[in-house]
Design brief:
The complex is a heterodimer of chains A (381) and B (89). By secondary structure, chain A is of the alpha+beta class. Chain A contains 18 helices and nine strands. Helices cover 52% and strands 9% of the residues of chain A. In chain A, a hairpin with a 2-residue loop joins strand 7 and strand 8 (214-218). In chain A, helix 10 packs antiparallel against helix 11 (241-252) and helix 11 (241-252) packs across helix 13. Chain A starts with a strand and ends in a 5-residue tail after the last helix. Chain B has 89 residues and is of the alpha+beta class. Helices cover 43% and strands 21% of the residues of chain B. A three-stranded antiparallel beta sheet of chain B has the order 2-3-4, with helices on one face. In chain B, strands 1-5 form a two-stranded antiparallel sheet. In chain B, strand 2 (12-15) and strand 3 (19-23) form a beta hairpin. In chain B, helix 2 packs across helix 3. Chain B is globular, with a radius of gyration of 12 Å. Classes of the chains: A alpha+beta (381), B alpha+beta (89). The A-B interface holds A 58-59, 62, 77, 80-81, 84-85, 87-89, 91-92, 95-96, 123-125, 211-214 and B 9-19, 21-23, 25-26, 30, 32.
């Protein structure tokens, strides 16, 4: 066992965590005392737009936490209104997509954006999102894609081999009839951490929220927290500030609170303690939050060699799809499934990746390099 | 226009700090209400005729209700045409 990997240096403007910390209790981050000058303000607006923080910046300005000149305040309110317009259009997509799945008898749960906005923030207008994410059961995955394709959704990428997504994939990214993105998930992430999740457990409970007068089901509070951890810790090499804000806010929510003991028990069973520890550590670091029992546990968590390799497959810039899938082999329990998984990746359908990887041989070469690098490289600190 | 109107059910809605944004599912346009239009919208949270809404608005703004009625009727008709207001049951 070695110490937990430290949060890699994140090239993100320092004001992004500050804005994202609005509404969190116990953050030591300090707002400026004077309005920013024009160049800094313009940069802030770009960052806020890119990181989908308009709702929180609007709250900071409106409450006087973030000093702003009159014209700056007007810009923020415009940016917020534009962001909320987009969210409403996406929610309209959610209504039709969900109705399509209902008509096909495909059970589904709303993930991330709309679910978090309506369940995890005191006001949905604080949480901006840019797509729709839905979870479906593995057994209904093909039915879901078929129903949505018939309704005008188009896959962005082809399947490795028929049945691969349903058995081993994270999900499918679709462009809907309105050209907005809809992601249909089977699990939280691709690779080893996505394959060690007890997926049936996700369907054993739910939270609900209302939208346009109809109810929607989302993951329960603890599973939503875990999903935010996966998203924050593994989703990108530079952790997204919004999933970090989501998980920190979830821990401070007083109604339907996160049951930390249950979360840690689930994380242990899903072999995801390193994921939760990394996510919590990142959130506490970004938002300079006061220590809690969970943050102390995260800071003291030691990552074993298996997790070091798995995390590296997600976070090392030299790694890509091949490295994550190679690392996933260890998470597939049955030999027969391992063989099917490996065969599909080694000999994918000819159409898979067409135009994306520069041909089959180049894909093989890149994959071999990634796997060699994954096997060769030592533990990261 | 004497029939009571009320907010349509099934609207997608966000309240920002100075606006209410409404999207009627199926529509391609978000309605962005602020100022007196927002105040008028709130008047139709419960079933109201445009005349009743004008009276409430006039009381809030210290204006003569009769002078507001034509504008209120016009806005209410527009919101009804867009599906945001519906005749009260």
């Amino acid at each position: 066992m070695s110490p937990a990997p430290r949060h890699e240096a994140v090239p993100r403007p320092s004001l992004a965590p500050l804005i994202a910390s609005v509404g969190l209790g116990g953050s030591a981050l300090q707002f400026p005392t004077e309005p920013l000058d024009r160049p800094d303000w313009d940069e802030l607006m770009v960052v806020v737009g890119a990181h989908r923080l308009a709702g929180l910046l609007a709250e900071a300005v409106q409450k006087g936490l973030m000093p702003a000149a009159d014209d700056q305040r007007a810009e923020v309110l415009d940016l917020h209104a534009s962001a909320m317009e987009m969210c409403l259009f996406l929610e309209a997509d959610l209504l039709t997509t969900s109705a399509t799945l209902d008509a096909a008898d495909v059970e589904h749960r709303v993930l991330k954006g709309p679910a978090s906005a309506h369940l995890d923030y005191p006001d949905p207008a604080r949480r901006v999102f840019g797509d729709i994410d839905l979870l479906v059961r593995s057994s209904q995955f093909d039915d879901a894609i078929q129903a949505l394709s018939a309704a005008g959704h188009r896959r962005r990428f082809r399947e490795v081999r028929p049945g691969f997504d349903r058995r081993f994939g994270k999900g499918v990214c679709l462009d809907g009839p309105t050209d907005h993105e809809t992601d249909i998930h089977r699990t939280f992430v691709m690779g080893p951490y996505g394959l060690s999740i007890d997926l049936p457990e996700l369907w054993s409970s739910a939270s609900s929220f209302g939208l346009a007068g109809r109810p929607f089901l989302a993951l329960d509070a603890d599973h939503r927290f875990l999903h935010a951890c996966y998203h924050a810790a593994l989703g990108r090499r530079t952790p997204g500030i919004v999933p970090l804000r989501d998980l920190a806010g979830m821990l401070q929510r007083t109604h339907d609170p996160v049951d930390v003991a249950r979360v840690r028990d689930i994380a242990r069973r899903w072999r995801a303690e390193a994921v939760v520890a990394r996510a919590v550590g990142l959130a506490w670091q970004e938002f300079a939050l006061q220590e809690t029992e969970l943050s102390r546990w995260a800071a003291g968590y030691s990552v074993d060699r298996v997790d070091q390799r798995s995390l590296r497959a997600y976070l090392d810039p030299r790694m890509g799809y091949a490295a994550r899938e190679f690392a996933a082999l260890s998470a597939i329990p049955r030999l027969r499934d391992k063989a099917a998984f490996a065969w599909a990746l080694m000999v994918p359908d000819r159409a898979f990746g067409a135009g994306r990887h520069g041909g089959r041989w180049r894909r093989w070469r890149d994959a071999a390099r990634q796997i060699a690098a994954l096997l060769r490289s030592g533990p990261r600190d | 226009m004497t029939q009571p109107l009320v907010h349509a059910e099934g609207l997608l809605l966000r309240r920002t700090f100075e606006n209410v944004l409404l999207l009627v599912p199926g529509s391609s346009q978000v309605l962005n209400l602020s100022g007196t239009a927002l105040a008028l919208w709130e008047c139709f949270a419960s079933a109201s005729t445009p005349r009743e809404a004008a009276a409430r608005l006039a009381a809030g703004y210290g204006r003569d209700a009769l002078t507001l009625v034509p504008d209120v009727v016009a806005v209410a008709q527009d919101l009804e045409a867009r599906g945001a207001l519906v005749p009260a049951p």
